[in-house]
Every structure is written in structure tokens, then in C-alpha cells.
Amino acid sequence: MVSSNIILDKDLKIHNVEDIKDELLRKLDVKGDITIDLSSVEKIDISGLQLLISIVAELKELKKIIYLLGSLKVTSPRI
């Protein structure tokens, strides 16, 4: 089966999550499974995590498999 690769090279934080979401949604309309490479992402906050969860849910609805590559550092705001 054909797989589509998406490389994210920006941090997934509240200030840019909407732009990244729009970019990802445009790229999800492909045949086959999806691989999202997160190796260049240095930080992710709760907004970024919610985005990834929503993308996984969307792909599940489309009966596609998603692969997430890389490792992340999840950050939380200091209170």
C-alpha cells in the first residue's frame, strides 16, 4: 500500500497549532497510510498534543493508519 510522508519541522505550540492543523488537513487527502515525521519538532505543548490526537481520530474515521516518527518533549506552562 502507498504511504504519504509528512515532515513537521516546527514546534507544536499554541501560537502556531492552527496553521499546522490547516497544513496537515490539506495533506491528509491522499491514498494510503500516513507517516508524520516529528524528528525535527523540539517542543510540543498541550495544544500540539490535542492536534495530533485529532489528526489520529480523523484518520481512524477514514480507515487509514498513521505512523508517528521521532521523539518529543512535551512542555507545560509554568504556573
From TrEMBL:
Q: Which organism is it from?
A: Thiospirochaeta perfilievii
Q: Which residues form a coiled coil?
A: none
The protein's name is STAS domain-containing protein
- Every STAS domain range: 8-79
**Cross-referenced InterPro entries:** MlaB-like_STAS, STAS_dom, STAS_dom_sf
